Amino acid sequence: MRSPVVKSCCVLFLILFLSRHYSVSATKKILNPKKPCKRFILHYHDILFDGNDVANATSAATANATKLGNTDFGKLVVFDDPMTKDQHLLSHPVARAQGFYFYDMKTTYNAWFAYTLVFNSSDYKGTLNIRGGYDEGEGERPVNCRGDR
């Protein structure tokens, strides 16, 4: 007859072994080129209203900068921006980015975004919610989304 300690150790070892096995196998997913890919690149086009471009503007500042630094600290912008598959503004949008961002650092340009990508075309339907910080000093950078079904 085994003691409860030995049984507990065996169960713990089995749980650790299975969790390691499943976590490793989940990260080694290889994309099949014959199946539809659930990853693609989108380009965000933001045209901030400056008082003259009503027809072309896709966003507007709803709170002005606070003048507490050399940045736009405190400025809040609401947007409804087109998202395209290429870098051209006039390309057919595959989604709309609808939400807001605000500048949240006094020492450098840094923004925090919260928006919903609204897909409503024959190829793509549905929504995707995104939020998080963005350091404008880093320039263009890709966002990696993983989640193949």
TrEMBL record:
Residues 1-26 form the signal peptide. The keyword Signal applies. The keyword Plastid does not apply. It comes from the Eukaryota. Keywords: Apoplast, Secreted, Signal. It is found in: Secreted, Extracellular space, Apoplast. Homodimer. Dirigent proteins impart stereoselectivity on the phenoxy radical-coupling reaction, yielding optically active lignans from two molecules of coniferyl alcohol in the biosynthesis of lignans, flavonolignans, and alkaloids and thus plays a central role in plant secondary metabolism. Belongs to the plant dirigent protein family. This is Dirigent protein.
